[in-house]
Amino acid sequence: MKKKSIKELGEFGLINHLTSDIRCHKASTVYGIGDDCAIFNHKNRDSLVTSDMLMEGIHFDLVYTPLKHLGYKAVVVNISDIYAMNGTPEQIVVSIALSSKFSLKAAEELYKGIKEACRIYDVDFVGGDTTSSMTGLAISVTALGSVEKGRAVRRNTADDKELICVSGDLGASYLGLQLLKREKKIFMKDPKIQPELDKYPYLIERQLKPEARKDIIQQLQEKDILPTSMIDLSDGLSSDLLHIATQSNLGCKLFEDKLPIAMETQQAAEEFRLDPGIPALNGGEDYELLFTIAQKDHEKIQQIAGISIIGHMSPEKEKYVLVARNGKEIPLEAQGWNALNRSGESR
Ligand code: ADP
Ligand code: MG
Questions:
Q1: Cα 190 to ligand 1 centroid, rounded to whole Å
Q2: pLDDT (tens digit, 9 = 90+) per residue, 266-289?
Q3: For residue 292, what are the CA distances in angstroms to 36, 41, 154, 301?
Q4: Residues with Cβ within 5 Å of ion ligand 2?
Q5: Confidence of residue 1 (pLDDT cuts 50, 70, 90)
Q6: 97 and 205 in one domain?
Q7: Per-residue confidence band for 188, with pLDDT thresholds at 50, 70 and 90
Q8: Strands of the 124-132 sheet, one edge to the other
Q9: Could you tell me the CATH number of the domain that includes residue 299?
Q10: Domain containing residue 130
Q11: How many domains does the chain divide into?
């Protein structure tokens, strides 16, 4: 039997089609999809909530973004915000607006990615909203989570002389995006040319299918290290570190030679004639954790693989400094994606 179209299914038919196989597993989920509200209960822990909205043409380009990856990423970027508070993600709510160009197959693909992320990160999918759109796809995810009372880690609580740490490596996602855009341009000129992306699988994966650093939060807990402040890297290291510094009324000093940069990132930066420090400092969407720790935790942090100490906090009047590879001190600026000429473009 031929599958129905979204139009034939209608709003409720579509919701039912996409969600009928969803089951809840978390103790904190009292009731999921099916009523006016979902019900949850985080018991005697503090509750966390965060939301991110992705718009076609602004945040993603369906020419090179598979819908399954998009659904996965939309969930991951929210879950990353829960980890950045030192929390545990537990539920998500997903609202979508679909234009008429969307097939049922496309909606199914999007939901495959969403459900996959729920499985990997062990969160319940408890509701959402479905509507139509005149222009393109919009997807908004809200994540709920919880944290033991008194253990939420904020951005505004760093102290002088504390060590600045970052997980993983930096700048790969930004270069992945540049590669995808370059291939799109070539494809638009001549659709017969197949995209050449095999050279940089890591960069493409970092852009299209990022992961949230659940493992780092677990290891910090195992080592009994409570970061003094924390943020996840969505806009770029400089910009996100400046959130910690300004909100904590402090300065900071970063050392360029300490920035973790993957081999592929260095190679692609060379190909784009960029200093690899630039995507590392200003490229966005790394979804790594940036945090500060007390000096007493210095030795303990070195026992966790994949964490780099990249600088330290300083008194406010010393401002925001980058010590370049040649030893020169230059002001650290929050360039984010504007300076990289990305504003208004899809990314
Ligand atoms: P309401 O009229 O109260 O807004 P809806 O008809 O929009 O309810 O939704 C019915 C149920 O389906 C609710 O539990 C809602 O959370 C869920 N739901 C609606 N849209 C989605 C979606 N896109 N993904 C997951 N659940 C959804
Ligand atoms: Mg509704």
A1: 42
A2: 999 999 999 999 999 999 999 999
A3: 41, 31, 11, 11
A4: 129
A5: low
A6: no
A7: confident
A8: 46-55, 138-147, 88-98, 124-132
A9: 3.90.650.10
A10: 6-148
A11: 2
